[in-house]
Task: structure prediction
Amino acid sequence: MVYYLTEHIGKFRNIDLKIKKVFMNNYNLLKNDENSVLISDTGIGKSITNSAEDVVKELTNRNDEFCIVNKHLYYIDTDGCTDELLHDNKGNFIGFNLLNL
Result:
């Protein structure tokens, strides 16, 4: 269970489920160009592979150069392999393209 410390009373309390997801999707934004975005797993919390749906949704909704609409989304997993998360440009994860690079 995830907790946070409230500064005003100094007690631990459960945080909202939506906030938990932010901490569970731990990845680094590494590189982008006009056709692709590259992210890497931090090895902390939920992996990119295990949270692919959330990662795709989050990156589709970004309002910066790391938005993945009309781009390929490549990721480096905790073993150092590079593969692709396939998506429909609407925030939905549709599968993996195993590149094994």
Summary: Helices lie at 17-24, 52-60. The chain is about 15% helix and 35% strand.
